[in-house]
Structure formats: structure tokens, C-alpha cells
UniProtKB/TrEMBL annotation:
<dbReference type="InterPro" id="IPR005814">
    <property type="entry name" value="Aminotrans_3"/>
</dbReference>
<comment type="pathway">
    <text>Porphyrin-containing compound metabolism; protoporphyrin-IX biosynthesis; 5-aminolevulinate from L-glutamyl-tRNA(Glu): step 2/2.</text>
</comment>
<keyword id="KW-0663">Pyridoxal phosphate</keyword>
<dbReference type="GO" id="GO:0006782">
    <property type="term" value="P:protoporphyrinogen IX biosynthetic process"/>
</dbReference>
<dbReference type="InterPro" id="IPR015421">
    <property type="entry name" value="PyrdxlP-dep_Trfase_major"/>
</dbReference>
<dbReference type="GO" id="GO:0042286">
    <property type="term" value="F:glutamate-1-semialdehyde 2,1-aminomutase activity"/>
</dbReference>
<keyword id="KW-0627">Porphyrin biosynthesis</keyword>
<keyword id="KW-0963">Cytoplasm</keyword>
<dbReference type="Pfam" id="PF00202">
    <property type="entry name" value="Aminotran_3"/>
</dbReference>
<protein>
    <recommendedName>
        <fullName>Glutamate-1-semialdehyde 2,1-aminomutase</fullName>
        <ecNumber>5.4.3.8</ecNumber>
    </recommendedName>
</protein>
<feature type="modified residue" description="N6-(pyridoxal phosphate)lysine">
    <location>
        <position position="264"/>
    </location>
</feature>
<dbReference type="GO" id="GO:0030170">
    <property type="term" value="F:pyridoxal phosphate binding"/>
</dbReference>
<dbReference type="GO" id="GO:0008483">
    <property type="term" value="F:transaminase activity"/>
</dbReference>
<comment type="subunit">
    <text>Homodimer.</text>
</comment>
<dbReference type="InterPro" id="IPR004639">
    <property type="entry name" value="4pyrrol_synth_GluAld_NH2Trfase"/>
</dbReference>
<dbReference type="GO" id="GO:0005737">
    <property type="term" value="C:cytoplasm"/>
</dbReference>
<keyword id="KW-0413">Isomerase</keyword>
Length: 432
């Protein structure tokens, strides 16, 4: 089986041959590689080529691929049946794990994706505040629910139609756009929409326009503005949750949110999302309160088995975070050294084990500066790396994810191939 023959079959029966746009390689050109299996820090394509993987399923595989404890937990659960549509002990264990690890979360509701978590959190925030408008940030991605497909990052950004067809003006009207890291732009929106803002939602570390860290006091400033104006602060921690530390961005930056959304890591590779918050807010959710939200497969036992195994590992072995941060730091330092030695216009952003290399000389602090990156150069770099057995995100505006399965040897090899690739690009006149 070859990737090239699969993509032809795929394209005739699926839009673009994929079930999620970024996988199509539209942002970097060329034909997508089809993956057969993965183990540890490596993935293998259908032609058995090996790659060191920095996509990590877009974040969930923080322990590496095919982690033994997760795999065993799932296999055991499968023997008991796939789905019951009735309460299970695993859902209780999962909820106890999340509420014990994340600050300020008394109650949690499991759903099936990050998109669903955000959609439900926004409904809840509107119900709790009895207000309608939401402030989001240019370049932040919150899944594909209608009201959030306005100035979204990630695939929406890469494919350059941030405002999706099919999203009507009514949905967009209640979404106000501020600039990331610009507290004044938020203050202005609050002033112009007095008493109408239900919530401010953001990625506490933006990781869908590349990686953009929050400036000092940006998150605390948002907290204060929300408090002054009776609005809720929603941290979309679908990427940062359990990625930066066991308590996520709230613990990492010592700022509390009112509602937190999760996805990716909490499913251990299975399709899972969740949203949680203080008791008084969560008690508004059905069946206790009037905010309707349900799911046939929500809290699915197989998904819970994977998530419980992963979160337990992260809770009990906090040194995992020291290790993945150190690996990512080595990558950061390596890229920065190369930029200097080869005199390349590169900007490297990193927060913990999230990393991004931008092809610009500008400091990347928001969506505007992120867009200054030369995406053609990123595309070339991506192809060089892929040919050299390194799997990076097939689009500039995504994060590199480091997992606990990455070894120092992997990092060294990655940097060696990166240097070779960048040198070839420079010699070919790409940076002229
Ligand atoms: C991936 C992502 C989502 C959407 O999650 P899905 O599971 O893909 O629906 C939402 N918010 C952020 C910050 C994400 O990175």
C-alpha cells in the first residue's frame, strides 16, 4: 500500500481526501503521508518509513504513542463492552481526577470533542450572565462551532477563509474580536458594549497561530476586566490543559478562570472533550439547571479508560513536565543557535513543551506578527524535514508538541536534520 494510491481513493470519497482539513497538506503542498502505526516518539507510514513525530496527534499523545499503560487500560475496558448509555464508575473516576488536578473546578461535564466543549461553555456563560456577546481573540482557535469561526486560527487560518461559508451574520454579530496580548483592545470592547459581554474566551497560550505566549499581566488583566464588568473568563485549555503542568494554564500563570474547556490530552488519544467550573456555574447544566446539553456517547467507557490512564500518569509523575520542557528547551536553543550561525530570519517561541519556529525576524506576539512569517519557507522546511524522517505540523500556524517518549537522541537527530535542511535552503537562495 502506498500513500499516493490511497490519496486518490480518499479524494474521490472524502472532501480533500481527509476528515480534518490540515491533514490534506494544502498549507505546505504535496501529497499527505498516510500513517499505519505509531510507537513512542515515532510514527510509521503505510510504506513503513519511520518519522520522529512532533505532531503527536495535535497534542493528545503527551506520553508518546502507544503508551503501554493507556493501551492496557483500553484493552481491559473493551472486554467489558464498548458503550452502555448509562452511568459508569469510570466517569466518576475521571471527574474526580480532573477536579482534583485543576484549580477552581468543582464539577465537570464530559463531551466528545474540544469543539463541543467550547460550544457548551459559551452557552453556559450566556445563561449564567444573562448576556449575549462573547469576546474572542484574532487568531485563537476554539473549534468549529459557528460563533467561533470568526477570525479563527489553525486550519481556518491556513486555508485563508477564516470566516467560513455557511456561518450567518447573526452568529458572527455576537462575537467581538480583540487582539491577543492587547489588553486595551479588550477594554475598548467592554466600554463599547456595556453590560452586554457574557464572556471573554481565549487560549491562555495561543497555540493555533503558531505558539504565542501571553505577555506578563495579560491574563491577570483579563481577569480584572471580566470581574469589573460581570463577565466570565473562559480558558480554552484544549491544548494547554495538562500540557503545561497538571493544573494547566491556571496553575502555570496563577490566574483563575470561571469556566475551563478541555480536549486532546484528557482523552489519551480517544475523542473526548470536557468543560468545568465552579459549582454555582455548573449547576446550571441539565439536568440540574436549564442549560440543555447531552451526548449519546459522552463519557464513553473506552475513552474514559484511556483518559484516566493518561491523567493518572501525569498526576503521579510530575517530573514528566520537567523532562518534556527540557527537551523542548533543547530544541528551542538549537533552532536559535542555527538562526544565529546561519544568519537566518527565524523567531522561536516556546512555552513549556509547546514550540514554534516562525520564518520572520519580528517578535511574534499576536496574530498580525504571526502572519509576518514566510509560509513558503515553512512549507519548504517542512518538506525537507519530512524527507529526513522528521514529522512536523504540515502548516506554519501550529505548535510542535514534545512528548515524554522523545529522547535526547531524537532531539539531537532532529536538530541535525534541521540544520542540514536550513543550510540547503540558505545555499539554494531561499533566505536571500
Ligand atoms: C483543537 C482545539 C479545539 C477543538 O477541539 P476538537 O476536538 O478538534 O473539536 C478547540 N480549542 C483549542 C484551543 C484547540 O486547540
Amino acid at each position: 500500500m502506498m500513500s499516493s494510491s490511497l490519496i486518490d481513493r480518499a479524494r474521490s470519497v472524502m472532501p480533500g481526501g481527509v476528515n480534518s482539513p490540515v491533514r490534506s497538506y494544502r498549507a505546505v503542498g504535496g501529497e499527505p503521508v498516510f500513517i499505519k502505526r505509531a510507537n513512542g516518539s515515532k510514527i510509521y507510514d503505510v510504506e513503513d518509513r519511520e518519522y520522529i513525530d512532533y505532531v503527536c496527534s495535535w497534542g493528545p499523545m503527551i506520553l508518546g504513542h502507544n503508551n503501554k499503560k493507556i493501551a492496557e487500560s483500553v484493552k481491559k475496558a473493551v472486554d467489558y463492552g464498548l458503550s452502555f448509555g448509562a452511568p459508569t464508575e469510570k466517569e466518576v473516576i475521571m471527574a474526580e481526577l480532573i477536579t482534583s488536578m485543576v484549580p477552581g473546578i468543582d464539577m465537570i461535564r464530559m463531551v466528545n470533542s474540544g469543539t463541543e466543549a467550547v460550544m457548551s461553555a459559551l452557552r453556559l456563560a450566556r445563561a449564567f450572565t444573562e448576556k449575549s456577546k462573547i469576546i474572542k481573540f484574532d487568531g485563537c482557535y476554539h473549534g468549529h462551532c459557528d460563533s467561533m469561526l470568526v477570525k479563527a486560527g489553525s486550519g481556518a487560518l491556513t486555508l485563508s477563509h477564516p470566516d467560513s461559508l455557511g456561518v450567518t451574520g447573526e452568529f458572527a454579530r455576537n462575537t467581538l474580536i480583540a487582539d491577543y496580548n492587547d489588553i486595551e483592545s479588550v477594554r475598548r470592547l467592554f466600554a463599547e458594549n456595556k453590560g452586554e459581554i457574557a464572556a471573554v474566551i481565549l487560549e491562555p497560550v495561543a497555540a493555533n497561530m503558531g505558539v504565542v505566549p501571553p505577555r506578563d499581566n495579560f491574563l491577570a488583566g483579563l481577569r480584572a476586566l471580566c470581574d469589573e464588568n460581570g463577565a466570565l473568563l473562559i480558558f480554552d485549555e484544549v491544548i494547554t490543559g495538562f500540557r503545561l503542568c497538571p493544573g494547566g494554564a491556571q496553575e502555570y500563570f496563577d490566574v483563575r478562570a470561571d469556566i475551563v474547556t478541555f480536549g486532546k490530552i484528557i482523552g489519551g488519544g480517544m475523542p473526548v472533550g470536557a468543560y468545568g467550573g465552579r459549582k454555582e456555574i455548573m449547576e446550571l447544566v441539565s439536568p440540574l439547571g436549564g442549560v440543555y446539553q447531552a451526548g449519546t456517547l459522552s463519557g464513553n467507557p473506552i475513552a474514559m479508560a484511556a483518559g484516566i490512564a493518561q491523567l493518572t500518569e501525569l498526576k503521579e509523575n510530575k517530573d514528566i513536565y520537567l523532562r518534556i520542557d527540557r527537551m523542548a528547551e533543547s530544541l528551542e536553543k538549537g533552532f536559535k543557535r542555527m538562526a544565529k550561525e546561519l544568519e537566518l530570519t527565524l523567531t522561536v517561541n516556546r512555552v513549556g513543551s509547546l514550540l514554534c519556529v516562525f520564518f520572520t525576524k519580528e517578535a511574534v506576539t499576536d496574530f498580525k506578527t504571526a502572519k509576518s512569517s514566510n509560509t513558503k519557507l515553512y512549507a519548504k522546511f517542512f518538506k525537507h524535514m519530512l524527507d529526513n524522517g522528521i514529522h512536523m505540523a504540515p502548516a506554519q500556524f501550529e505548535a510542535m508538541f514534545v512528548s515524554d517518549a522523545h529522547t535526547e537522541e531524537d532531539i539531537e537527530k532532529t536538530l541535525e536534520k534541521a540544520e542540514k535542511s536550513l543550510r540547503e535552503m540558505k545555499n539554494g537562495g531561499d533566505f536571500a
